[in-house]
Amino acid sequence: QPLVPVTNEVPETPVVSPHSGAVFERRVIEKYLVENGCDPISGKELKVEELIEIKTPAVVKPKPPSATSIPATLKTMQDEWDALMIHSFTQRQQLQTTRQELSHALYQHDAACRVIARLNKEVAAAREALATLKPQAGIVSVPTMIPQPALATAGGTAAHPMEQAGMSAEVIQKLQDKATVLTQERKKRGRTVPEDLVTPDQVKSFLTVASHPGLHSASVPGILALDINSADHSKILTGGNDKNATVFNKDTEQVVAILKGHTKKITKVIYHPNEDTVITGSPDMNIRIWHVPTSQTQLLLRCHEGPVTGLSLHPTGDYLLSTSSDKHWAFSDIRTGRLLTKVIDTAEVGLTTAQFHPDGLIFGTGTVDSQVKIWDLKEQSNVANFPGHTGPISAISFSENGYYLATAADDACVKLWDLRKLKNFKTIQLDDGYEVKDLCFDQSGTYLAIAGTDVRVYLCKQWQDLKVFNDHTALATGVRFGKHAQYLASTSMDRTLKLYAIE
């Protein structure tokens, strides 16, 4: 029997095409015609009805000649096995390629997620910076040509070094009168505390209510000094590592002024209690007195030969005490810019900090050789010394009660001194390695705040640790109480100003 050209097998129901004369299996050719409608051999049009059926006797179909012997069968099986192996290898190859493509896609997805997270972070930072810049829009319009401030000279003659004008009887009388008034007011107040003062329990419930990272440059991070306007407690002053001082309103959350002029970082700042005036000190050896509404320097005091390390404003609001690593303390008139007196330390060592007593007739200075010295301003003499610390004195603070003095140095403790007995009556021992950068009593003398490794508040007299704030991610550099201790502010090397209060 002939083999069918399409299937290469002997047909069961053979039919012949009248066009090509070729024999086909009926079911196969019918399928072909349905799909193509033409003779597979000649390509001419062909219909099913035209096919001629061939009558054949029913005989056993012979096996294809290729599978008639055992070797041929084995070869067929070998060929099938080889084909199967080749197919399996191809599948494995494709699987490996797919795996590589999948891992590459996952890696790209992970990288994309990281990029998105970074971009989200940058967008948040940009929004934050924009929120800070919006209130500064009015400040930027200040002319870039800053007029040179009046260089403070002694009696209007020598420019540098400054001559001392001396402590006149008139100045001494003014200091004495102010001290008398302040002492009488303190006696009148007695031991009563203001009605609005927060209670120790309320201090314990203080939480971080605000954090402002946008006051100073992010490229030179760090806020080094802090003060609050005692007349308007919404105004906060900060001094930065970026050489600028910033006046910030915590209620409107807007920057009021940016004070630019120092050539080095600003390490000490004072907000004048009765005027819109700010005083800043820097390692550039200058003290600047600024007019906040215009962001301009009114006076430039050059009374030191080294970095300015301490500033304290006299209660009259007219005179400024400053200390420097040049071993001197100086007393200047901030109205005229005149240097009234400049005195070298008794041991001739660098001074690290300064603070007026609330009455303004005595003041304290800290030295690099661990001494706290009390001076009489009228006599310009050293009247008492408080030894006991190790390392340079980092901060001192007089209590408003008039007889407590808190001091700190590089020895992880805060010492409290009684000015009536000239004795260290309490030492607050902190953890090993704890750094204290700033101390501050509240206006009533009820609480003492410490800033450094963290920010903490103590209750005076019991010296009980009321609250510890660990929110800063770097060393805290400044701490101040708001009016009646209703809130607490702190600054840090993490470039944030944080505010704590009852929610």
Determine the strand fraction and express it as a percent band. 25-35%
Could you tell me the radius of gyration in angstroms?
A: 45 Å
Structural class: alpha+beta
| Strand elements, count | 32
Strand order of the largest sheet: 4-13-12-11-10
Largest sheet: 5 strands, mixed
Total of DSSP H or I helical runs spanning 4+ residues? 4
Overall outline: rod-shaped
Textual characterization of the structure:
This protein has helices at 26-36, 70-140, 169-189, 200-204; strands at 14-16, 23-25, 52-53, 150-151, 207-212, 223-228, 235-240, 244-249, 254-260, 268-271, 277-281, 287-291, 296-301, 308-313, 319-324, 328-333, 339-344, 351-356, 362-367, 372-376, 381-386, 393-398, 404-409, 413-418, 423-429, 436-441, 447-452, 455-459, 464-469, 476-481, 487-492, 497-501. With 503 residues, it is α+β, with helices and mostly antiparallel strands. It has a 5-stranded mixed sheet with strand order 4-13-12-11-10, with no helix packed on it. A 4-stranded antiparallel sheet has the order 5-32-31-30, with no helix packed on it. Strands 6-7-8-9 form a 4-stranded antiparallel sheet. Residues 140-147 and 153-160 have low confidence and may be disordered.
